[in-house]
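so im writing up the methods section and need the Deoxyguanosinetriphosphate triphosphohydrolase record in one place, dumping it here so i stop losing it
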Amino acid sequence: MNWKQLLSAKRWGYESRALSDPQDARSEFQRDYDRLIFSSPFRRLQNKTQVFPLPGSVFVHNRLTHSLEVASVGRSLGRIFYNEMRGADGMVDEKFPYLQEVGNIISAACLSHDLGNPAFGHSGEAAISNYFTDGAGQQYRKLVTAAEWADLIHFEGNANALRILTYPFAGKDEHGFALTYSTLAAIVKYPCDSVDGHQAAHHRKKYGFFQTERQVFDKIAGELGLVSDPENPAVYKRHPLVYLVEAADDICYNIIDLEDAHRLNILSYDQVEKLLLPLCGDGGLEHRLEKLDDEDSRVSLLRAKAINTLIHACASVFMNEQTRILDGTFDRSLIDAVDRELRDAMQRIRTVSVKHIYNAPTVVQIEVAGYKVMDGLLEEFIPAYLKPKKTKYDTKLLALMPKQFHAKQDDSYTKIRSVLDFVSGMTDLYAVDLYRKIKGISFPSLD
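--- predicted struct ---
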């Protein structure tokens, strides 16, 4: 793979349209960022759980604030890489005209990396999959192909993000968000379908597109010159910028979850300080911390220093491993390739997070509730949509689905996928409210 082909300003669905004038205030990649940040799917992230239940009097991160922070870290990673490339070769701008835009490409991809995640955090994904593996959805296996069934039993938010950005939903632009090819490619962490995913190789740990988007990604890969996996031609190696998007996400959620846990009194200040100090790399930091009486301010300083250390460490790995990344032989995340001392510190954070944060009572409660709500919605809408002869109840229920989610094709997989589009796009609050109303637990207000 080569940077000249990998960085393309062509837009999905508008390939022949003239590119913006270089004198314009915004580049094509900045336009991607702006389209995303003003979009409805992005705004809905403010009411989707990151880890902890949505905040009451104490602020914790939701999917939207997480995505904004990831985009900020991603832009820094891209900028460092560009500066190092320019420092190593003064002619880099002439060789690769869009290389100076990598920060904007990465930040746009970071904004959208969680667009496809359903309500209730990662338990929402598991709940949708569980409906088909262990719930009433098992009956639909005979109605779809083996590859389509693999999509359904392993619902994947990453693949759903690509669908949201490119699928021609009814009444919407037939080319989706019409983002640039490079931004779209930078989103797909696992460039394979559900049949070829869930393997040991890092780029196949999960999967990145549903059967409906197989041809979409093939076209993106062909345009950008992504290489195929020698072990399986149906699988691609990652677009190199995916590594920086992934690193930004890894850095943020590992560090920020500690900050939220401290705010909620799940972890003490001493516990957080012990975990973050080894990542801060600042000999004079302890003296600065002593000057701060407020514990939240201390945690914020530790968080900022730790993130800065990890940004530079990951950018260094990306630069040093660039040859292997471009030829598709680098097979791990950047965060797992930093110096041993930093890796050990990150592993200690993961261990504490699993024990004390991800298994905290409030986190488990929202996960359990998510299972019930998601399963309840699917068991109502999917049968109603698939029935050839609908009852009055079915008709009224389906009237609750906005027009954009009504399938254009009549096959079972497309109809099921349409219901999943509707349900996975819901915020936590809307999903709970709709569930309660259609189950007769509460009644709509006349206000």
